[in-house]
């Protein structure tokens, strides 16, 4: 099956890496840097470890967020996000949202997928360990995150609906809409922070849905 136009476009954006070694992960980088790895067979020889690095603050000079691909600890390639790196046996696809990782998967030539494993010291790695050690609590936190985001989506729709309905052409044909909710500022702020926390928690698990998380995709 041939590549789509978008897949070819993403692969053309891949540039050679600078050959620098991968720096170790530090605890203070937990929310600013993501490292995810996978071991892939190379020809008939031993496997190579491919690691994707994303610094969420972007490059110091340009602010552009890039993904860098390391092979056995040496930078082999880099690309703006979203990224699609050709590797032996398939590609590694990388996407992020405004609050963290959205996708980092190896897609084999036969179409099968495997998610890269996060560094255990990163936010994604710590969240994965928590889910493994406390599955019940992890599921509850995930459900609360979805509820917080649904509330945020509902409030956004109500806030947009009223001014939209006041556009003359819409008001003449459908009438105007008046929001039934009048929330105090402190509650609006609290719910907004809750939605942000929910989005961050889902990003740590690389969960994404266009309705819940679509406002922050790149």
- Indicate the proportion of strand residues: 25-35%
Order of strands across the main sheet: 1-5-4-3-2-10
Cα end-to-end separation: 26 Å
Rg over CA atoms, rounded to whole Å, is 21 Å
Number of helices: 6
Q: How does the SSE layout of this entry go?
A:
Blueprint: H1 5-12, E1 15-16, E2 33-41, E3 47-55, E4 66-71, E5 74-80, E6 83-87, E7 90-97, E8 100-108, E9 113-115, E10 117-118, H2 123-133, H3 135-165, H4 168-174, H5 185-204, H6 210-213
Antiparallel strand pairs: 1-5, 2-3, 2-10, 3-4, 4-5, 6-7, 7-8, 8-9
Q: What does this entry look like structurally?
A:
With 218 residues, this protein is of the alpha+beta class. The protein is built from six helices and ten strands; from the N terminus they run H-E-E-E-E-E-E-E-E-E-E-H-H-H-H-H. The radius of gyration is 21 Å and the shape is globular. The mean pLDDT is 87.
Key phrases:
single chain, alpha+beta, 6-stranded antiparallel sheet, 4-stranded antiparallel sheet, COG2719: Uncharacterized conserved protein, membrane, transmembrane helix
Quick structural gist:
The chain is built from six helices and ten strands.
């Amino acid at each position: 099956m041939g590549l789509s136009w978008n897949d070819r476009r993403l692969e053309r954006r891949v540039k050679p890496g600078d050959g620098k070694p991968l720096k170790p992960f530090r605890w203070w980088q937990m929310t600013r840097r993501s490292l995810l790895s996978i071991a892939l067979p190379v020809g008939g020889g031993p496997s190579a470890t491919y690691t994707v690095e994303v610094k969420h603050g972007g490059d110091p000079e340009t602010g552009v967020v890039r993904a860098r691909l390391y092979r056995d600890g040496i930078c082999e390639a880099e690309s703006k996000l979203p990224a699609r790196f050709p590797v032996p046996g398939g590609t590694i696809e990388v996407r992020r949202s405004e609050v963290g990782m959205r996708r980092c998967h190896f897609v084999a030539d036969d179409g099968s997928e495997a998610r890269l494993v996060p560094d255990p010291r990163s936010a994604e790695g710590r969240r994965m360990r928590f889910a493994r050690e406390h599955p019940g609590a992890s599921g509850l936190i995930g459900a609360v995150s979805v509820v917080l985001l649904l509330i945020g989506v509902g409030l956004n729709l109500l806030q947009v609906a009223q001014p939209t309905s006041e556009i003359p052409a819409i008001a003449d044909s459908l009438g105007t809409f008046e929001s039934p909710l009048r929330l105090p500022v402190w509650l609006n702020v609290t719910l907004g922070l809750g939605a942000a926390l929910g989005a961050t928690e889902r990003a740590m698990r690389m969960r994404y849905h266009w309705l819940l998380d679509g406002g922050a995709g790149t």
